[in-house]
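As a next step, the fold was encoded as tokens, giving this record:
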Amino acid sequence: AKESNEYAAKSNEISSQALELTERLAPAPLSELTNVSKNTWAFRNESGRPIELLSIATVPTEAQRFIRADSFPQLLDCGDRYSLLILEVWGLKIEALTIKWKFADDHNATVCSTRRNVD
């Protein structure tokens, strides 16, 4: 029985390490921002699961009024692309977007925050 418990403990440790490694090597749930046209930018859900977009904020926050996005929450299925307008304003550059989201298929999902640079 003692030997069996030792094997079970070792097996649990290996499984835990494998899960941690898989999570570290998994692709980011949201792709980088890409410039689709002059003022249109987009990102894609690459998670393999549906995502509920909760909000998008600009960095710096003073530039928030210069983006045009659909109202939230928005469902983004696996592989779907979300597009928004980023307006150019003289003297104020949007450096990045902070996207708040959670997995839509998990009722206890943690709200995540992903920052994407506007390059």
Helices lie at 2-25. The first strand starts at residue 34 and ends at 35. Residues 23 and 76 are 21 Å apart (CA to CA).
